[in-house]
Structure formats: structure tokens, C-alpha cells
Amino acid sequence: MRALGLRATSAGSKRSVQKHADRLGADYGHFTGNRTWDENQLRHAIAESRSWTGVQLKLGLSSGASTSLLKGHAVRLGIDFSHFSAVSPVPAKEFPEPKLEYLRRAGGVMAATWFILCGRQISWPLEPCRFDLIVHDDLEMRRVQVKTTTRKSGSSWLAEITTSGRIKVPYDPDEIDDFFIIDGDLNFYLIPIEAVGGFGALQLNAYRQYRLPRLHGLFAAA
């Protein structure tokens, strides 16, 4: 460029000279510009390497040098790099599988999620007490005891609604307002204590009127 009296920093002039050189069949592959390597060095580095990292090392480039730049020059110059080893496939991640044996541990969170998605406010008791959740709406506050079941009696899920501990007794209607029950098919029931006061267990087939609507498959049946 300087020999022709042109500005070496002008991209337009550089493209013009390259076009004329191509038209005349003049070889300029040995030009390096600001690079520290030329076309022949790139060809040899690619031929003797199995990855772009190997090419960088052979050309004396830092590991942070752009492989896309080297690849672009290789494509432009028609240098074959198909022998580079393919990236090893990442093994498929093994995801955990939900199991009903953990339903009891998940019950409180699932119940809270249902109420929150219905626009209710949720509170968790700070001290151990008979209810698991307090559910607030604009009109009232309800104390909710969450129960889960993975046991069946005949064709019906059987839910125990007694207190936990060594001695199991029915809940006092003065202590809770509702039972939120989750069965082994992940059906949800919201049953007021007035409907089941004094009972120790429920055949849930008899309480279908208290079954809650599914939330567009959020908790699909098992």
C-alpha cells in the first residue's frame, strides 16, 4: 500500500488493491498485515493439528486468540480442517424422578402453591400448632391442615385425618378450619372440618364434591 502511495489504514484502498491483484492473478498469500503468521504457516498449523487450540499453539498465539478469526481465514483460503476431532457429545443429564414416597414431605408446599396460584395470601405458623397453613383472602382467614395419602382401601384412596404423634385423635373444630388432602393420583381436596368432624379416616371417593379443579395439568395425574 505504501509502495503505491496509498494509505495503509484505508479499508477501501486495501479492498481495491486486493481486487486488482486477484484480477491479475498476483499472489499475496505471504502478506500478513498485523498478523504474526502467513498463509503457509496457517496451512501447516492446521495440517499438523487436531483442534483450533492446537493451531493456536503452533502459531504461537495465546489461548484467548479468536478461533473464529482463524477459521474464517481457513475458509477463505480453502484450507481443509475436516480432520479436526468433533466435540465430544455432552452426556445426557440424568434428572431426578418424582416418587410418591416423598408426597408427605411435599404436601405442604403443593397445597401452598395451589392457594397462591388462586390468588390467596399464605402464612406459615412460626410455632408448632395443629394447622399447617393460614390462608387469607379479602373476607376471611382459614386455618388449613394438610394431609396426604398413598394408601388405598379397595378402589378408593384412604386419608387419615387424625393428629400425628403416638396417640392419634381427631382434630378439634376450634383448632382448624379445613383439610387440604392430596391423594396418590395427585388429586386435591379442600374439605371443611364441619363436614368430617370426629372422623379418623376418609374414603375419598365419598368426597368427590370437595375435589379441586386441576390447574391446566400443573399437577398431572400419576
Please, could you describe this protein's structure?
- The model has no long low-confidence stretch (mean pLDDT 84).
- 15% of the residues are buried.
- The chain is of the alpha+beta class and 222 residues long.
- The protein has two domains: 67 residues, no CATH class; 111 residues, Trna Endonuclease, Chain: A, domain 1.
- 27% of the residues lie in helices and 16% in strands.
Please sum up the structure shown.
The chain has 222 residues and is an alpha+beta fold. The protein has helices at residues 11-24, 39-47, 52-58, 67-77, 103-117, 193-196, and strands at residues 121-123, 133-136, 141-148, 152-153, 156-160, 178-182, 188-192, 201-203. The model has no long low-confidence stretch (mean pLDDT 84).
CATH architecture of the largest domain, by name, is: 3-Layer(aba) Sandwich
Which fold name is given in CATH as the topology of the largest domain? Trna Endonuclease, Chain: A, domain 1
> C-alpha Rg, in Å?
36 Å
The ordered H/E elements are HHHHHEEEEEEEHE
What's the tally of helices? 6
- Which residue ranges are poorly predicted, with pLDDT under 50 across at least 5 consecutive positions? none
Please count the beta strands (DSSP E, at least 2 residues each): 8
Helix content range:
25-40%
| Overall pLDDT score | 84
**Class from secondary-structure proportions:** alpha+beta
Outline: rod-shaped
